[in-house]
Design a protein that fits this description.
This protein is α/β, with parallel strands linked by helices and about 260 residues long. It is about 45% helix and about 15% strand. The structure holds phosphoenolpyruvate. The site of phosphoenolpyruvate has 14 residues, from strand 8. InterPro entries: Aldolase_TIM, TIM_sf, TrioseP_Isoase_bac/euk, Triosephosphate_isomerase, Triosephosphate_isomerase_AS.
Length: about 260
């Protein structure tokens, strides 16, 4: 048993405008309320597109929903002539608590490398946001380097060189499992999460490693979530496609019902 509260994070990617966001967040909140969801046993966060954040913040604030807000990315810079970029300072002003850093779609389509991910992690710490550092191997890397090499390397690179490590979360997302319907087995996910934690302990400290939540992500659904979260090594899930359906995402958040905790 650990005292890390599981985090159920829903990455909407580039889906839902601000009006559709209202409908989804309301439905999700009602579904969790109907099920008497206890947020102290599983935290729930949504990661809407930037243009939805103000609307979602206003709704959550007005209706006192316990759902947390995350952003999908942030700039490594604070402010200035960086057209199209979003500062961590702006996110903080919108009550954003979490920010995804280094999602595989950013690494793949926006050429983000470990240096960029490290700089964005630093920006998140600077603005008191909690980075969710996404790591994971492609199928080719799985075949050539084995299961944990790439996620461990990416984790250590993102956490290197910070004067003080703030709170952070790691999301292990095998690239071959994102949006494909293919999932890692619960045993594989737990083994990689455990190796990531061990590497953090060796490079930083036992305390830092014990405090970090390490999530699994990749085609998670209500029907398979319990398998992952049964392991004490896995502290939550990062969910893409299934987070766009309020009932499905609420079912994922209520995973404890399936594992009898
Ligand atoms: C993701 O976007 O981080 C993700 C895990 O997507 P999906 O659940 O759709 O595989």
């Amino acid at each position: 048993m650990t005292n890390r509260i599981p985090l159920i994070a829903g990455n909407w990617k580039m889906n839902l405008d601000h009006q559709q966001a209202i409908a989804l967040v309301q439905k999700l909140a009602w579904s969790l309320k109907d099920a008497a969801h206890d947020f102290s046993t599983a935290e729930v966060a949504v990661f809407p597109p930037f243009t939805d954040l103000r609307t979602v913040q206003t709704l959550i604030d007005a209706d006192k929903f316990e759902i947390r807000i995350g952003a999908q990315d942030l700039s490594r810079f604070d402010s200035g002539a960086y057209t199209g970029e979003i500062s961590g300072a702006f996110l903080k002003k919108l009550d954003v608590r979490y920010v995804l850093v280094g999602h595989s779609e950013r690494r793949q389509f926006h050429d983000e490398d470990d240096v960029t991910v490290q700089a964005k992690t630093a920006a998140a710490f600077k603005h008191s946001l909690v980075p969710i550092i996404c790591v994971g191997e492609t199928l080719e890397q799985l075949e050539s380097e084995g299961q944990a090499a790439v996620p461990v390397r990416q984790t250590l690179a993102a956490l290197a060189g910070h004067a003080n490590l703030g709170e952070f979360v790691i999301a292990y997302e095998p690239v071959w499992a994102i949006g494909t319907g293919k999932v890692a087995s619960p045993e594989e996910a737990a083994a990689v999460c455990s190796k990531i934690r061990e590497a953090i302990a060796n490079e930083h400290s036992q305390e830092v490693a014990a405090a970090a939540r390490i999530l699994y992500g990749g085609s998670v659904k209500a029907a398979n979530v319990a398998g992952f979260l049964r392991s004490p090594e896995v502290d939550g899930v990062l969910v893409g496609g299934a987070s766009l359906d309020a009932d499905e995402f609420s079912g994922i958040a209520r995973f404890q019902k399936h594992i009898g905790v």
